[in-house]
Amino acid sequence: MTANALAAGEGQEAAALLERTRETVNPELRRTVESLPGSMRRVAMYHFGWEDEDGRPTAGHAGKAIRPALVLASAQALGGPRAGDPDAQGAVRAAVAVELAHNFTLLHDDVIDKDARRRGRPTAWTVFGIPDAIIAGDAVMALALRLFAEDPHPAAAAASARLAACVIELCAGQQADCAFERRPDVSLDECLTMATAKTGALLGCACALGALYAGAGPEEVEAMDAFGREAGLAFQLIDDLIGIWGDPGHTGKPAGADLIARKKSLPVVAALTSGTPAGEELAALYAGPMAGDDVRAAARAVERAGGRDWAQAHAADRMGRAVQELSRAVPDLAAAGGLLALAEFVTRRTR
Description:
Blueprint: H1 3-34, H2 38-47, H3 66-77, H4 89-113, E1 117-118, E2 121-122, H5 124-128, H6 130-149, H7 156-182, H8 188-213, H9 218-245, H10 248-251, H11 257-260, H12 266-272, H13 277-286, H14 293-304, H15 307-329, H16 337-348
Antiparallel strand pairs: 1-2
């Protein structure tokens, strides 16, 4: 079988797994969000894609479901019940909690980054205002912790503590990301640490929660967390590439959106610290406002300085590390096919 055929097969497996996850998780996710009162419910229902700005039902959905899929696939890989079995309900609640925490970050990030579009339509803050979007994000995070507080599963307390610690780490990563935008010089190590906190931490937490709900021991839980973190960093590297070269028709954001915002994304920092003439050109472009021809020139400068190639190669390296960590928890990787398919999906995607 060719490498392309193998990748296509893994992509199909991941797509099927994500679809099954949405079918399993979304009913509980929606019931939980619908428990919010009044205007908070309205903002959250809009953000998740279930209603329009006037509260009318829409055909949208809550997102790709990558993080809840990691929870369920991790639980299954470590011997937990399969999704759909009655005994798997605890893992489903954990999957819902992770998705709620993820959307808490999205609601806040859209405000912080002044992003006007998400999932192909206006972001919540542009429709309902900044205060309502922030408050809805806070309420969504509270829902995640309430799920664990009300969960009779023996892993619930440890899961709640792990998710809370993860959210603190996420906030630290977001704070560092904002600080980088105000600093002229950011090292690649600093940027990698920030990306691990901002993106890798929640994917690691998702995998660790699945392990907890499967009854795994501490070593397996930590190995699964490490797997998710490494895969999460690969995910962020690809996401940063999409932020520069992604198709607006698929991303729902303008071409070069991260460059317009002058974000210190990983490919950009790799280019800025390359010591090349193209890196110096990029630094000069980043010193002023970015629009039109400047954005295109910046994208070319990142590529000529090696930022694009570095990010692609580093994503592959991080995936290799992720598989090594996974093998510590699941020595027979055949039992972790769903996790591997998901990891390949998030690092091979182009939008």
